[in-house]
Design brief:
Oligomer: single chain
Distance between the termini: 37 Å
Order of helices and strands: HHHH
């Protein structure tokens, strides 16, 4: 079941890409180049937000890939030059993919808890007193009609 705010994958991916570029511009202005961890944390937060608010795991993972290229090209290196830095880049990519997955899983957990709450409310309404087994499984008519 999709939420009311979920959009198709392409639209979510486009919004995620725009958010990544805006986050990169912000972090480039706020953090100096040696502060790579702070820049990575900002990008991971952006990707996690796309996972939570987009509600679409493929779009969140695609946004993580875009975030890695922007992080590598503009926040680690300069002028959009993509280079492989070995283990450091693998860790950065894993952090971004993990943030996307964690954001999406947080949304799924929220939806499951909300669904559970709605089921409990419906049971209380139907049976009168929650999960007691002594109550009949149907709603009786009141004496007034």
């Amino acid at each position: 079941m999709r939420s009311l705010w979920a959009a198709p994958t392409g639209i979510t991916l486009a919004g995620g890409a725009a958010a990544v570029v805006a986050t990169a511009a912000f972090t480039a202005a706020v953090f100096t180049p040696p502060e790579l961890l702070a820049r990575l944390v900002a990008m991971a937060a952006c990707v996690a937000a796309v996972g939570v608010f987009g509600g679409n795991l493929p779009a969140a993972l695609g946004t993580a890939g875009i975030a890695w290229t922007v992080l590598n090209g503009f926040l680690v290196n300069r002028l959009g030059v993509l280079t492989w830095h070995g283990t450091a880049d693998a860790i950065r990519l894993a952090v971004l993919l993990g943030a996307a997955t964690a954001g999406w899983l947080a949304l799924r957990a929220h939806r499951a808890l909300r669904h559970r709450r709605d089921v409990v409310r419906m049971r209380v309404w139907l049976y009168g007193d929650g999960f007691t087994s002594s109550v009949r499984p149907y709603k009786e008519a009141s004496p007034r009609g």
